[in-house]
Amino acid sequence: MVANIEQPRQTVTDLIYDRLYRQVIENELPPGTKLSEAEVARTLGVSRQPVRDAFYRLSQQGFLLVRPQRATLVAPISVEAVMQALFIRTALEVATVMAAAEQGTDEDFDRLDALLEEQGRAVQADDRMGFHRLDDELHRQICALAGHEYAWTLIREHKAHMDRIRLLSLSFTAHDALAEHRAIVGAIKARDADAAVAAIRHHLSRIAGSITRIHQTNPGFFDQEQI
Q: Cα torsion for 192, 197, 199, 204, to the nearest 10°?
């Protein structure tokens, strides 16, 4: 009999961190937004210490600028951090699509097709957050059917800076992203590893063009020293 393994309970700091992390990534708190420990604590009905701890964690990841005796700000988007995340993600996903093309089963492919259908409905409904979640799920499933689900854990840990760009770009890239997902899945189903690698590289590389376009309309969102 396998004993149940209890998951560690989230602390107040964890909950505050998760909330602020999501708001920054989803651009509910855009770059330059001022944050106050006292105001966040009052809004959430908590003491200032867990808020301070959450601020520190987010600052260590490059999402907040904590300045002594001055307002804490949501950090600008770092192009350098985005490109570092892209490098890591591309290396891992190239390996997983190759493995998926070699060992995926018909049942695996049916799950991917079902996700593509859901993505199509999300695009039609202009449900950007829904599409984003389904996008992540497709990539996670590819890692899983390749036998390397732990790779998605690593990708998720590093892709947050990419997500700030991805979520801003979905107003003009969702249709293209869906077409690229279909190409990736099509190559995997055809067991054509080379085509799958080419498709995933093309899909992930488009973020550079998205950075340029978003910067044209929202120049204040970026670290100007990196543009």
A: 160
